[in-house]
Every structure is written in structure tokens, then in C-alpha cells.
Amino acid sequence: MTQIAPEKPQTEAHSHEQPLSWRRYFSFSTDHKVIGIQYIVTAFFFFLLAGIFAMIMRGELVTPPIDLVDRTVYNALFTMHGTIMLFGWTFPVLAGLANYLVPLMIGARDMAFPRLNAVAFWMVPVFGFLFLFSFLVPGGPAQAGWWSYPPVSVQNPSGEWLNGEFLWLLALTLSGVSSIMGAVNIVTTIVRMRCPGMSWFKMPVLVWTMLAAQIIQLFGLPALTAGAVMLMCDLSFGTTFFDPAQGGDPVLFQHLFWFYSHPAVYVMILPVFGIFSEVFPVYARKPLFGYKVVAVSSFIIVALSAVVWVHHMFASDTPGWMRMLFMFSTMLISVPTGIKVFAWVATIWGGKLRLDTAMLFALGGLINFVFSGITGIMLSSVPVDIHVNNTYFVVGHFHYVIYGAIVFGIYAGIYHWFPKMTGKMYYEGLGKLHFWLTFIGTTLNFLPMHPLGLMGMPRRVASYDPEFAFWNVVASIGAFLLGMSTIPFILNVVASWIAGKKAVDNPWRAIGLEWLVSSPPDVENFEEIPIIVSEPYGYGKTEPLTENMGG
Amino acid sequence: MKFKTILILVAIALILGAISIWVGQISYSWLPPQASAESKLVDNLFSFLVTLGTFIFLGVTGTVMYSVLFHRAGRYDLSDGPHIEGNVTLEVVWTAIPFLLVLWIAVYSYQTYQEMAIRGAHMHMPEAIEPAYAKPIDKSIEPMTEIEVEAKQWAWIFRYPEQNVTSTELHLPVDRRAHLILRSPDVIHGFYIPAFRVKQDIIPQQDMDFEFTPIRQGKYRLRDSEYSGTYFAAMQADVVVESKEDYQKWLAEAARKMPSAAPNQAASEYAQREEKAATAGWATIIPVPAPMVNYHPASK
In this complex, do B187 and A389 lie within 8 Å of one another by their Cβ atoms? Predict the structure, then answer.
């Protein structure tokens, strides 16, 4: 596997791909760095789109009665907001970061299967188009929430064969296939293509967490994809897997759905744990505290993530023993995640901190994650969950996870590796403005959801009782602020990419293979394959990382 | 020096502990009034989790904020921090303590759950063989009242089988264990009364047993908690908890009334939408017609 890139195709690739023109980003490129950036930029488009959906919803929720959009429109908006945020933004942007960073960090010239990689990416615009196209079919897009629980999801009020739910299921299946392709590729790359000397315990934690996350994709996604196909058969081809009126079992779908969709949270948060583990040591100038434990705890999380899914179904038709068992397994996850949190805190402690934008986002993300972890433990406790299940408390909790921790981590990663990806420095002032707007917006938007849920406001409602008005107005202000917070980010990225100061190879004085190559790296990354001689995160020491590369 | 450090740590822990207990006490006010026996149990557990959570949150973020304020690199300081790779004792401690906390939370939650004795369809078995779940919350509570609950797109209908009374308002006698049979003919709905802290999904085509004990007179809100389609948000009903006498009086009066059409938000919104013809929305499942019941708020 290490001789995967013989000399001849390499020079061919050079003459083919150079000069570094913007056009290659719109081509069927097989360069992992191009694909990585393609993923990230495409995903960001969907992020903005689903964000606009959220702002329309928050506009509706400014007042208690239904007055801005029709109920069917509201239901379509929350369905597509959740779906696109997950399958159009979070998964693809993380696939993009994995694509860009993993080969560089393990000293490989590309991914194991470059063409498969490109195919997996080009499926994103295809299923993204299907999601958008569903707004144009009679009956409108899917309106059953991103869980798409039957029987609601198969009621098909329009009566049309080509309906929004059908397109939704088709797109979801394609997304699943694309993610499985990506997972096969990333796992193979990490297992087989590490450079000489890079043993497991010399890999950066980001590589560990990416591997852990993609292994979840491999065992979990087939369940969801099968569930989606079965639901499509129920909807369009007359089967009755989940139809209670004809002997089917709607709760079976919930099991299939959550068997993947809870571990999916770890598919999203594990790479962000990786980003935190890379960013904190660089900006605190200290080694990652307890590196080996942090690395291994990722796999404890993977194992536990496979046995917690029923905690989404405590108020569903689940027997008491199942509730108690899954309550306990869910609570156990706090142990390996706690290990990571304490390790990051200890990494920062006594360091020499530099609060650049990437560090600010990582710190903000860490604080938000701790908060969401605590509300997560509350939710895992069955009696409390029975009260707040399917209320805004849950919505607040998972937005703290997905926005507060995951999106913050993604921003931290994008700022940290921006000089490497583009060869340009971003504007620090705009970055800090972006951070503060995002942090304040997140707090205003998602914190009020917790009291709302405790008071008993169900999620997914287009109208609500007047007693909930105050916190809803605050949340809506936060949502609009979050929308605005993307403006300095876009401005920063576009302006600095075009006219920013040229970045040196290693602007943050970071330790890692990706910082030993030029910014941006050449097409095949390494002129000579590096030979690793020391562990990652050697801050405070003078040991070289490799035998044969400078720095 | 070491003794001084320990003293400082203990002092900090005491201050954080005091703040956490205070927040834990406040947390009761974040919840609706305690209108059922179950709500007291849930709120105690919640308050305990808030206390513990506040302590951990303040401990972790306090440490982070301290580092951010006092461990900053000087402007021209390009040196690295100390090369500390880890500390086995510390790592064992911060694995063991969370593990013990988790055990504590799990046991407390388990006990609360048993005392609540929540039932679902699967637990429909003779009283005699379920001692683990049937531990009554309060010995003084009177025997059950049986009510059939029908949830459909998008109306709640309550039927009192002994008097053959139907209603769109759920009336319950105070201090008496309520036994409900939940049914749905169409999709999954969720039976949720926030003031009672109880919730149960209603799986279509099944009889689901459900129990709780109202302990406070007043009017509360029942909401559908499992997304059920277009008019989901409008699927609400009032719950009236009243004294035994008032309850009997209400039942007797309702039994004398002829069934009439109850006001129904989904049905009336749909009718309005059809009238306007120029639909701003997409196709919807047609709501069930306004239910014909003996008692509804407008029938007074």
C-alpha cells in the first residue's frame, strides 16, 4: 500500500492539475485536498440555506399564534432544517475536514481510493438537489420531521407518487451510500497508509477520532439506510413493515432509526473532539494531557454509542427494564467524555495561552459542550426524561451539542487550518468579531429553550400558548443574531482568500506533519514520505517530529 | 505550601457547593406547579441533578476561565509551556469520580422510576405479579378511576365508561389514582400533561394502560407530545382536577346532556383554509370533524 503512488502518474498529475486554478474546484478532481475543500464549501452553502429555514421558523415563533406561514410550510421547514443541517452540512463538512487533514497528518500522498472519494463527494450535490427539488413537487417537501416516524411519514396527503417524502427518503439513502463510501475510504487510509514510524500511538488524536467516527458509520449507517428503504417501500410500493393497521410495527422503525441516529451524534462530535485536541496544545503551547487515554477513550465512546439508542424512546412503547438498562449505558458515556474534557482543561492549565480565533472557538465550544453534557445526563435519567422528552429542553440540549460544540469546533478547525488550505492568513479582527457574535447568538438562541422545555412546550409546534412567549422572543433574537454572525465569517474568508497576507508554512508554530509542508501543500503533499520518530504534541521539548523533514 | 493549596481547594469547593445547592433549590421554580404525586418525585430528582450539574459546570468552566485570565502568553513570549504529558493519579481520579457519580445518579433515578410506577401497554398484567412496579406512592390514595382516552388527528376525546360520558375536557378527581386507557386510530400521539410530569406515546391500534395521581385542584394543559402531522401544535385539551364531590356532580350533569359538536381548532382552521381556496400551504390530512361529545367547554 505504501507504494501506491508510482512516479509516473505523479508527474502526470502535476502537469494536469497545475497551475492551481480555481477551476479545479469545479472538476472531478481526485486530489484529497481539492475534494476536502469542495466538501467544506458545498456544505457551507447548505448550512446557510438550512439556517435561513431556521430563521423563518424563529420568525413564526416570535408570536404564539400561527401567523407568518401555513402550518404545512412550518412543518416542512423544520423537517428540512434538521435534515439539511445534518446530511447537507455537518456530515459533509466533517468529511471535508477528514479528507483534507487525514492524509496530510499521517504522511500519505492521497486517500486510499481517490476516485471513490470523488464519487462520494459528487453525490452530495445530487442528494442536496433532491432535497431542494422536493419544494417544487405537488404536496411540498417531507413534513414528518427528520425522524420521519411512521405512520405520519407515510400518510402522503397529496396522493401523488412523486411526493416530498419519497424524494426525502431517496436523498437520505443516497446520503447514506455516500457516507459509507467515505467511511470505507477514511478507515482504509488510516489503517493502511500511515507513513513509516507512525505507529498507532504516534497518530494525532484527530486521526484517532476520525477513525472512531467512521467506524460508527460502517456499523450504524446500514441500519438507517435499511430503515429508509423499508419506509420507502411502505410509502410507495404497498408493503406494511411499519403499518400498525396491517400488522406492522411503527416502533421497529424507531429502533432502526435510532440505532444509527444516536451514534450519528458521535460521528459528528468525535472529529470535533479531535479538533479540540489539536487546537488546545498549539495555542496553549503544551502537550495534550494524557494523550494515550484521550485517544483510546474515543473507542470506548464508539463501543458505548452502539448500546444507548433506546434513550430516545423512553416515552415510546418501551418496557421498564429497557428504560433502566439504556439509562445506565447512556450515563456511562459521560465517563470517557469526561476524561477528554478534563484532559483539555489540564492541557490549558499552566500553559502560555494565545487567544487567536481558533482558540476562542475551541474554548467556547468546550464550555458549551460541558453544558450540553450536563443537560444530557439529566435527559438520560428516565423520570426527568419522561417530563422533558419531546419538549424544547431536548431541542436546547442538542443544539448546544450540535451548534454550541460541533459548529464551534468546525469553525475552530477552519480558522486553524485556513492558512494551510489557502496559503493566506485570515483577518484576526473579523475572526474575533465572528466568535463573539456566534457565542452571544448561541446563548440567546439555545439557552431559553431549556426553561421552555421545563415549562412543557413541546418541540415541533408552529403555535404555542402565550405563557411561552417571553423565552421564544429571546430565542428568536438569538437566531437572527446567529444568522448575522455568518457575515463577518464569509467576508473574512472571501477577502483573505483573494487578498490576504501570504501564509508561511507554519504560522502557529504547531507540531504536526501538515505544518512541515508548504501552504497550500503541493499536489502529492510530500516530496519525500516522512519518517516519524516521536510522539505528537512535543511542545516544551526540542525533539524533531520526523527523521527526514525540516522544521 | 501543600497544606495551603488544600485549604484553598476546600474553600473553593465549599463556595461552589453552596452556590450549587442554592441553584438546585431555585430549579423547582423552573417547572410547572406540582399537580401530581409523580411531579414531586421528578422535581426532587431534577433538583438533585441541577445541583450536581451546577457544581461540575462551575468547576470546569471556572478552571478554564482562570487559565484564560492568568495563563496568557506575553506578547513577545514565544516559548512553550512546561512539557507535561499526563498524570496517572489525576487521570484515575477523574475517571473514578464520574463513574461513582454515574452510579449514584442511576440508582437515584431507578428508585424514583419505581416509585412513579409508570405503566405502558406491555405492563398490562395482573396486579399480583408486578410488585416491583405497583408500589403505591401514597397509601391514603383511593382506588382508581378508569377513563378511555382517544387521540386522533387532531382531537382528544375522553370517555368515562361507567357513566357512558364523553368529553373534550379531561376531568379528574383529586387524590385518586387515575387509570387511563390510551388509544389512537391513526398515528402516534403523545399524552403529555406538563404539570403532572407524565408522558406516554400512544402507539396506534393498541390499548396502552397509563396511571398517575393528581394531587392539586386546578386547570392544566394536556398536549400532544409526539409529532402527529399538520395540526399537531393545535392538539391540546384542558385537564380539570377537582374535588370528589365536584367531579361526581360534573359526571352526573354531563351524563344528562345530549352529545353536541365540540369546538375543535384543527377542524375550524381547516374549514377556514378551504374557504379561502387560495391555499398558501401544501396538502394536508383532513382533520377529523369536530367530535360529538356530552360535555365540552362551550356546552355549559
Answer: no
With bands split at pLDDT 50, 70 and 90, how would you rate the model's confidence at B144? confident
A390 and B102 within 8 Å at the Cβ level: the answer is: no
Cell numbers for B185: 386510530
Q: Which residue has the cell 512516479?
A: A7
Alpha-carbon distance B58 to nearest alpha carbon in chain A (angstroms): 10
Single out the residue of A183, A189, A174, A271 nearest to residue A220, CA to CA: A183
The ipTM estimated for the assembled molecules is: 0.93
A370:B61 CB<8 A: yes
Q: Round to whole Å and give the CA distance between A442 and A431.
A: 16
CA gap A254, A148 in Å, rounded: 9
Q: Which residues from A are below 8 Å from B281, CB to CB?
A: 69-73, 140
Q: Are residues B178 and B259 in the same domain?
A: yes
φ/ψ of A485, rounded to 5, equals -65, -20
Instruction: Tell me the residue range of the domain where B265 lies.
Output: 148-299
- Same domain? For B180 and B57 the reply is no
Same domain, B179 and B295: yes
Chain A residues 307-326 within an 8 A CB cutoff of chain B: 315-320, 323-324
Q: How far apart are CA A418 and CA A37, in angstroms?
A: 11
Same domain, B162 and B229: yes
User: Within a domain: residue B253?
Assistant: yes
Whether residue A72 lies within 8 A of chain B, CB to CB, comes out as: yes
Q: Is residue A127 classed exposed, middle or buried when 0-12, 13-18 and 19+ CB atoms within 10 A define those classes?
A: buried
What is the rounded distance in angstroms from the CA atom of residue A350 to the CA atom of residue A17?
46
pLDDT, tens digit, for every residue of A82-112?
999 999 999 999 999 999 999 999 999 999 9
B152/B111 same-domain check: no
| Chain B interface disruption, residue of A285, A288, A291, most B CBs within 10 A | A285
For A146, what's the count of Cα atoms within 13 Å in the CB-facing half-sphere? 19
- Asked if A246 reaches chain B (Cβ–Cβ under 8 Å), the answer is no
Q: Interior CA angle at A459 toward A456 and A462, to 5°? A: 110
**A6: number of CA atoms within 13 Å, CB side?**
2
Let me know if residue B268 belongs to a domain. yes
Best probe of the B interface among A240, A377, A408, by most B CBs < 10 A, is A377
> Is the same domain home to B158 and B260?
yes
Residues B111 and B158 in one domain: no
Q: How far is CA A201 from CA A130, A303, B94, in A?
A: 42, 20, 22
Which residues on B lie below 8 Å from A463 (Cβ)?
233-234
Shortest CA gap A156–chain B (Å):
8
Domain assignment of residue B84, yes or no: no
Grid cell 505523479 is found at A10
Q: Do B290 and B158 lie in a common domain?
A: yes
Task: Report d(CA B102, CA B108) in Å as an integer.
Answer: 10
For chain B, the domain total comes to: 2
Task: Report which residue type is found at B265.
Answer: Q
> Which of A243, A249, A279, A317 to probe the B interface (max B CBs under 10 A)?
A317
Q: Are A463 and B234 within 8 A, CB to CB?
A: yes
Domains of chain A: 28-516 (1.20.210.10)
Which of A76, A383, A456 has its CB closest to that of B223? A456
Checking if the pLDDT of B153 tops 80, the result is yes
- φ/ψ of residue B158, rounded to 5: -115, 135
For cell 463556595, what's the residue? B15
Domain containing residue B152: CATH number:
2.60.40.420
| pLDDT (average), residues A483-489 | 97
Is the model's pLDDT at B269 over the cut of 60? yes
Q: At what angle do helices A32-60 and A469-499 cross, to 10 degrees?
A: 150
* Residue B237 belongs to some domain of the structure: yes
Q: Work out the minimum CA distance from B115 to partner chain A, whole angstroms.
A: 10
